[in-house]
Amino acid sequence: MDNKVLVETSARHVHVTAEQVEILFGKGAKLTKKKDLSQPGQFASEQRVTVVGPRNSIPNVVILGPERPAAQVEVSMTDARMLGIAAPIRESGDIAGSPGCKLVGPCGEIELEEGVIVAKRHIHMTPEDAERIGVENGQIVSVKVNTPERSLIFGDVVVRVSPKFSLAMHIDTDESNAANAGGEVYGEIII
Fold it and tell me: Is the separation of the CB atoms in 24 and 110 below 8 Å?
């Protein structure tokens, strides 16, 4: 059984609605693709915003496309502490009751009532991948990562299954630094 998975570092980023793009970047503005991401149809845009918290701000944060039905700000725990936001660890899209922040663009700003999270580490996979590996959507697994002088096992990794996904594990920058996971890194899914 091949339980190997590409481990990618997902740096801080923002998701916004089409309406919010126009507020931040001007009437008629749309997200423009800078580069494709590993998940089909997802991309890093040319657009950047400043994320403002009660204590500090982080400039130049990338917006990922395409636009979404609700705004979401994904930061590392280190970022959250620096911003002064008690961001919960959640799966992407689970923003109910999470803290908000301000997003500032060149043409306007938005006060988010909620949406700031630390993304729960997860593995994207297709139904075929899940069947081959022997896991189900929502299952919690561990992933062993062997790296120079910082090998570790990530626990509490949620499996996310969809025909729209491509096989890859996503960790944030804090987790990546803890594992010395620079460059192309693979992990072994432990069930």
Answer: yes
Residues 64 and 151 occupy one common structural domain: no
What are the angstrom distances between the C-alpha of 28 and each of 23, 25, 67, 123?
Answer: 9, 8, 14, 35
Mean pLDDT by 10 residues, the chain (191 residues): 90 97 97 96 97 98 97 98 98 96 98 98 97 96 94 97 97 96 93 87
Predicted TM-score (pTM) of the model is 0.93
Tokens of 65: 């496309």
Judgement on whether residues 131 and 148 belong to the same structural domain of the protein: yes
SS3 for 33-95 is EEEECCCCCCEEEEEEEEEECCCCEEEEEEEEECCCCCCEEECCHHHHHHHCCCCCEECCCCC
